[in-house]
Amino acid sequence: MTSFAIITGAAGGLGKAFSFELAKIGYNTILIDLPNKELASISNEIENKYSNKSLYYETDLTNIGNIIEMSDDINQKYNVSILVNNAGVGGTKRFEDADFNYLNTIIQLNVMATTIMTKQIFPNLQKQEKSYILNVSSMVAFSPVAFKTVYPASKVFVHFFSRGLYEEFKKSNVFVSVVNPGPMKTNSDVTARINRQGFLGRLGLMSPEKVAEISVKQLFKRDTLIMLRTNGLSWLLLKFIPIWIRLPLFSKAVRREIIN
After folding, report:
1. Section 39-56 average pLDDT
2. How far is 59 from 40, CA to CA, in rounded Å?
3. Cβ-Cβ contacts under 8 Å for 245 (sequence gap 6 or more)
4. Across 88-92, 101-105, 159-163, least confident range
């Protein structure tokens, strides 16, 4: 197979899991993440384990110039049939304590980078016989939450952007899907924050490897909205509990992440 799959945020957590999952089923991979994230080591591990090509780009996706420069290089050199927009960032802070850089990083990475990466790689995807875009949203896209504020709003964007893009190109060779994972223990910081939330924070908890496995399987089944089975209770809560109840309920759980 000469075609490549691009995975952003590939150095850890769900992005790393996506990279290994796609390599396992035969795709060459292009891994993207920040510098000094050991991408070379991950790339080598993939090649040694699966005998597929694995390349990497180290760049900051919050800078639009970096995205354009990198994607132009990819488009000139490689055929891309899968784009996984996984890179994202969140966190928990009181809004009054969140500085400009903190808020801007969430917006630039979750909203701008997802949009511009898709725009830049789209012509490459259109050249392939069959291609896929998988955008990673979140269960928090279905409810506002205090002490996170901008992060859920950014994931609403990812969700709606993906659904609209699917409708626009559903008769083309480019299939667009979105996955909405619940909590995942992707690193020590995230694990600590989940644990502090208590029961509600652990609803739908899954490993990144399992999320990646199910998401890839459903993507190839052309599932436009990937909702993981273990998120069923969370989805029911979001769907049937009125917002005036669930907003303070979820916000109280999330507030426990903040260490006073």
Report:
1. 96
2. 13
3. none
4. 88-92
pLDDT tens digits for 161-177? 999 999 999 999 999 99
Domain layout of the chain by residue ranges: 4-255
| Cα four-point dihedral sign 150, 151, 155, 158 | positive
Are 23 and 50 in contact by the 8 Å Cβ rule? The answer is: yes
HEC profile of the chain: CCCEEEEECCCCHHHHHHHHHHHHCCCEEEEEECCCCCHHHHHHHHHHHHCCCEEEEECCCCCHHHHHHHHHHHHHHCCEEEEEECCCCCCCCCHHHCCHHHHHHHHHHHHHHHHHHHHHHHHHHHCCCCEEEEEECCHHHHCCCCCCCHHHHHHHHHHHHHHHHHHHHCCCCEEEEEECCCCECCCHHHHHHHHHHCCHHHCCCECHHHHHHHHHHHHHCCCCEECCHHHHHHHHHHHHCCHHHHHHHHHHHHHCCCCC
Question: What pLDDT band is residue 190 in, cutting at 50, 70 and 90?
Answer: low
- The identity of residue 246, as a single letter, is R
Selection from 109, 107, 61, 117 nearest residue 84 by Cα: 117
CATH code at 4-255: 3.40.50.720
Amino acid symbol at 218? Q
Which amino acid type is present at position 189?
D
